[in-house]
Amino acid sequence: MEKEMNTELVLRTEKLTKIYGNHKAVNAVSMNVRKGDIYGFIGKNGAGKTTFMKMVAGLAAPTEGSIELFGKREEKKQLGKNIELFGNSEADLQRKRIGCLIEQPGTYPNMTATENLEIVRRNLGIAEKNVVAEILEFVGLSEAGKKKVKNFSMGMKQRLGIAISLMRNPDFLILDEPINGLDPAGIKEVRDLLLKLNREKQITILISSHILGELSKVATRYGIIRDGVLMEEFDAEALEEKCKRCQKIVVDNTATAAQILEETLSIKNYDVPGENVIRIFERIEDAAEINRAMILGGVALKESYLAGQDLEGYFIDLLGDDTKVR
Amino acid sequence: MFNLFSGEFYKWKKSKVFKVCLAAAIGMILFIYLMLMLVAKIQNGEMENGTGGVVVTESNMEEEEDVFAQYGILGIVSEITGGGFELIFIAVFTCIWVVGEYSNGAIKNMVGKGYSRGKVFLSKYITTAVSVIVMNLILFLTMLLLGVAVMGTGEVNGGFFRAFFSYVGVQLLLSVAFCGVLVAVCEFARNIAVGITISMVLVIFSTLILSGVDLLFQALHLDVKASTYWIMNVMSDCPMGAIDLDFMGRAVSVAVMWTVLSLLAGMIHIQQTDIA
C-alpha cells in the first residue's frame, strides 16, 4: 500500500462497474497500475478482463465508477453532461498516451502491413514517415511489410497489432491476450518484445493472458478477477512467497502445534493460513522429525504432506478449477 | 480532424471497394445502353424481335421513332437515375466502407487513441459523401459520353448542358443526403449483412412503402403525404430541364432535413454505444 502511495499511478479505477442487462460483467473493480509495472491480469473466460480493458481504453462506457488515467479522472459519461458531440473528456485526452490491442488486432486484411501502419500514422498525425518502417523493424515484421495482412500467420497478426498499438510512443500499453494462438517461438518473441518495451522504453503494460507460466516470466504485478470482481492484487515477490515450497500439516490444535514448532524444533518460519492448517517453510527435509514431534507432543496429526505450488496451481486454487483458467 | 481525413483518404485510395462498386455501376450502365441499342435495332427492323431474349411489345414496335429518338440523351439519363439505379451501388459501397471499420476492428485504433467518437463518425460521414459525389459524377459523365457516342451530338447545345447540370446538381445533393441515411443505418447496424439488407430495402422498397403510408393517411383523412419528404421520391420527381423554384426548395429542404437527421442520429448512437 505504501509503495502504491509513493509511486506514480498510470491507471487507477474506482469501483468500476459494467452491467449488461442483469449481468454484472465487471463489479466494482478498483485497480492500481503503477508506472513501470507489467501488470498481469488473470481470470477465467468471461471473468470480465476484456470488458474492463475496453472501459479503460474508452471503447465501452462504465455503468458506474471512475477511471483515472495518468492522474486525470473520468466519471461515467452522460450525453449532454460530460459528453459533447465533438469534444474529448480529460481521460480521452490521456488516451492519446495509450496503445491498446484488445481482442483481434484492428487491421485491413486486404492491405499490407505497411499500408495498415501508414493509415494509423496519418490518423494519429505523426509527421515522421519513417516511423512505419522503424516500428515494423522493432516488431520483427520488416520483411513482411509488403505482404497483405490476410496472408499473415496468427503470430504476425499479433505482432502487427502490437506495432499499431506502439504508434505515437505510448506510455501505457493495454494488451488483451497478445500471445493467444501463438506457437512457442511466437510466444517467446512477444515476451521478449514486451520486456524490451518495458525496459528500454519504460512503457507500463497491462496484459491479460491465460498462459500463466508465460505471464509469470514478465509480470511484476498481478490482479486476479473472478466473476467480475477483482479478488487480489499483489506483486511478483508476494506471489513468489505464496508459492514457496513448504510442509503442510493439518492438526487438531494449531496453538499447541505452533508451540512445538518453536520450542521443540526451533522453527520460526511458518504460518497458519487456515483453520487447523500450518505451513512450515524451513527444515522441509526433516518432515518425519516434525511429524514425530507433533505426535509426541500430543497433537492429533491428521495430514502431513509436502506442498509447493507453481504459479498455475496457485491461480487455479484461487479461481476454482472447474474450468480452464484464462 | 485533418489527420482523420488524411487517414480516410489514404484508405480510400488503397481500398478496392470504391473501384469495384464504380466498375460494377459503369458495367451496368454499359449493359443498359447495349440493351437499348438492341431495342432500337429491333424497332428499326434491323433485327428480329426476340433477338438476344429482348422482346419489344407491339405498342412500342408501332412507335414511329426508336427508343433513342423518343427519349434523347437527357431522357435516358433521367430514366436510369430517377429509378435509383446508382443508389444500389452507393448502398453497397457505403455498407462495406462504414461497417468494415467495425467488422475488422479498425475503429478501435481511432477511438482507443483518444479521438472523440463524434469526430470519427463525422470523418467517415464526410469521406463517404465525397466518395458518393465522385462516384455519381463519374456515372453521369459515363451516361453522357455513352449517350453522345450512341445518339450523336445532335441535341447537345447550351440548353442541353444547362438542363443536364441542373439535374445532376439536384441529384448529387439528394444522393449525398441518401448516403447520409445509409451511413447512419450502417452505424446502427455495425454488421455488413444487416447493413446491406436494410439499405437494399430502403433503395428498392422505400418508395413503395411510402405509397402505402400515403394511402393509409388518406384513409385516415389526414392531409399529409409522407412520400413528399422522402429523398428517393424527390429524386424520381426531379424534372430534366427547367427546375422551378418550388421543386428546388423542396429538394434542398428534404436534403438538408435528412442530412441533419442522419448526422445527429449517427453521432448520438456512436457516442452512446460500446465498440465491440
What are the defining features of this structure?
heterodimer; A: 326 residues; alpha/beta; Rossmann fold; Alpha-Beta Plaits; 2 domains; six-stranded mixed beta sheet; B: mainly alpha; 11 helices
Give a description of the structure.
- The complex is a heterodimer of chains A (326) and B (276).
- Chain A has 326 residues and is α/β, with parallel strands linked by helices.
- Chain A has helices spanning 2-6, 49-57, 90-94, 113-123, 131-138, 154-166, 184-200, 212-218, 236-242, 254-264, 287-296, 311-319, and strands at residues 9-20, 23-29, 32-34, 38-42, 64-69, 72-74, 98-101, 172-176, 204-208, 221-226, 229-235, 246-251, 270-274, 277-280, 301-307.
- Chain A has a 6-stranded mixed beta sheet, sandwiched between helices. In chain A, strands 1, 2, 3, 5 and 6 form a 5-stranded antiparallel beta sheet that branches. In chain A, strands 13-14-12-15 form a 4-stranded antiparallel beta sheet, covered by helices on one side.
- In chain A, a hairpin with a 2-residue loop joins strand 5 and strand 6.
- Chain A is elongated and about 80 Å long.
- The two termini of chain A are 27 Å apart.
- The model of chain A is unreliable at 1-6 and 322-326 (pLDDT under 50).
- Chain B is an all-alpha fold.
- Chain B has one domain.
- Helices cover 78% and strands 0% of the residues of chain B.
- Chain B contains 11 helices and no strands.
- In chain B, helix 5 (85-103) packs across helix 9.
- Chain B is globular, with a radius of gyration of 21 Å.
- Chain B starts with a helix and ends with a helix.
- The chains are: A alpha/beta (326), B mainly alpha (276).
- The A-B interface holds A 54, 57-61, 77, 79, 83-88, 92-96, 98-100, 102-111, 115, 118-120, 122-125, 164, 168 and B 2-4, 6-7, 10-11, 14-16, 100, 104-116, 118-119, 122, 267-268, 271-272, 274-275.
